[in-house]
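User: Show me an example of a complex going from sequences to structure tokens.

Assistant: Sure. Here are the input components:
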Amino acid sequence: SQQGEEDPQALSIQEGENATMNCSYKTSINNLQWYRQNSGRGLVHLILIRSNEREKHSGRLRVTLDTSKKSSSLLITASRAADTASYFCATDLYTGGFKTIFGAGTRLFVKA
Amino acid sequence: DTAVSQTPKYLVTQMGNDKSIKCEQNLGHDTMYWYKQDSKKFLKIMFSYNNKELIINETVPNRFSPKSPDKAHLNLHINSLELGDSAVYFCASSQKTAIAKNIQYFGAGTRLSVL
């Protein structure tokens, strides 16, 4: 089973609405990252939150981290059609060397 | 200039063939990776190299052989291609320091189709 699992698997909203994606993981982590992947492209880093942080903001993005529940959420406010993409959480573990494990992603579709 | 570039972008080949995918990064990073993304978009790490040294090998069949001639390049050679190897392969790089925090930079991907 995967270290990071996103929920929901797919999300369809209207432009202007907020989009919330959740990520759960299993083991202790050093950092948790969120990435975006546009169709046919590579992943692009959005935001990183450290294990001792609870919330982080970057523009229209807000990430929360609850290490007691081993979960994180990504909120995109006032969504735009250009936000249509897949969003992945990635957990950084140290197991003798750093390892980043990606979840299966949430596919977000923002309708104009 | 593209930070992480991989070639080719598309690769269509017959079962049983041998093929290579090349990756280069101009970010000065010490660590490079190969990931496989299947049709369900699940991204799985295959290999990681740090300064030309293999540090992660995720039980990938030994038909897959990575080679890192220097820290800016990580190539992937695949022998005896099978149908199940069809996927998108991504190269990535990162700098694992307290400041960089292992943020990874991805190439655009190589879509491999084995017929």
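The lines above are the inputs; the final block is the predicted structure for all two components together. Chain B has a mean pLDDT of 91.
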